[in-house]
Specification:
Layout lengths: L12 H16 L5 H12 L5 E10 L2 E8 L6 E3 L3 H9 L3 E3 L17 E9 L2 E10 L7 H17 L1
Antiparallel strand pairs: 1-2, 1-6, 2-3, 4-5, 5-6
Bound molecules: methionine sulfoxide.
Length: 160
Amino acid sequence: MAEDLSIPQGAPREDLYKALIPQMAALIEGEADFVANVANLMAALKEIPGFMWVGCYFVKNNELVLGPFQGPVACTRIQKGKGVCGTAWAEKQTLIVPDVDQFPGHIACSSLSRSEIVVPIVKNNEVLGVLDVDSAELDSFSEVDAINLQIVAQWISEMH
Ligand code: SME
């Protein structure tokens, strides 16, 4: 496993993912520990410029509980249907929120967060958690992020 990531500087987001995704795959290859792999995946994603907070929440006893993350401290538990994370869980779909102040019920773990994407992690048709990325910039996420973060969510699902 290579421990250093090589990230093209100043490249468009799509090119960053193109460079990062194979390196992330290599990062978790041959390692069976779930938490270690998720922690490293979150750290790798945090290398993307503008990603202020990157982390996972996992469903435990019918609520989302904070898992491995990178960034400022965050709320520990989120109820189903609450906030962007709980809504992505309830609706079982990726949510892109260009302006968190316009999302009813958004949970402001950090006052610096301006936009957000949440991807459900699904296994056997059940949501087992969510992958959440926050940005300090408005309108920071697009379909490019959704597609690539869904790849990462799929890996997490397969490892679980
Ligand atoms: N903003 C999220 C809460 C999690 S933090 O962003 C890390 C939400 O509304 O669900």
